[in-house]
User: Fold these one by one.
Assistant:
Number 1:
Amino acid sequence: MTEKNAEIKKKMKKALDKDRYRHTVSVAYTAACLAMRYAIDPEVAFTAGLLHDCAKCIPTAEKFKLCEKYKVELSDFEKTNTALIHAKLGACLAEKRYGISDKDILDSIRTHTTGEPDMSLLQKIIFTADYIEPGRDQASNLPEIRQMAFVDLDKAVCKILSDTLAYLGKKKDAPIDPMTRKTYEFYCEQKGGSK
């Protein structure tokens, strides 16, 4: 682990609650493993994984104030579904508070909850690592998706999106972010991933 990542890890331990910190470290290591599999720098993936939830434990009212301060544009959907705000705000804070200038890392943090069409390899890795890290145990098809992630990342992304939409579709009045649908259409319909 680089010195910079060791420092970020210490800061995350202070910024996050115990469970969120445990999840964050697990996502970072899972992302590094996926990065090695797909031949990109594991330290870069580790950084993105460490910072993906850096805004998660900030109280909602403060999230809105920070978005206003840093001119983070939120969609109407995000304004009413505040659990999603941490992704865009997190990308902003990664740059402003943690000194990250790598656009791919920032984009990976920004899109880790909903994805977006035509993601970079790092974006797909963080999106997937957040879903499959070892501490996760509630989602359906996890063993299958965990294996798939190391064989065909696009298929894993499609399966995650498909399962997420199916899960939200079963919940009464569960809102679905339009970006999640667009991402699903791109990876599962246009690219022909398996559903």
Note: The mean pLDDT is 95.
Number 2:
Amino acid sequence: MVHDESNLFVASGDPLRLGITNLSNGVTYDPTTGEFTLPQDGQYLVHWWVNARNLKNKDYDCEPNALGIELHQFYPGDALIAHSSTHNKLNLCETGTITGNAIFNGNAGSTYRLINTSNVDFELVPNDRYSGSFTITKIN
């Protein structure tokens, strides 16, 4: 599991860089890039959730926005694995939860990232303790 407890700023198009790593299954994670690397070929299950606040620029009209996250294979080559978003559009400074799951076939040494695919920046906001988490499990 990788998680965060801070108010992490994530610009549109940037990867999520969660700061606390508790991985024990051979998967490695680099919090400076937001990349996780698979240790061996197989089928993997990834689950993620974040509490995100819409940070659309206050100088513009306050148009509600859905916030989204995509799981991408980063190496070798960029490939979309899964997409998730808030269930409704959020006004400026409103907070919503983005949650997603994916089952995919991965190869040893391939890397993956969770990317903010919203057309706006967002901030991760702690709810009780955590502001976001993702879990990676080899299932086959």
Note: Residues 2-98+112-126 form one domain.
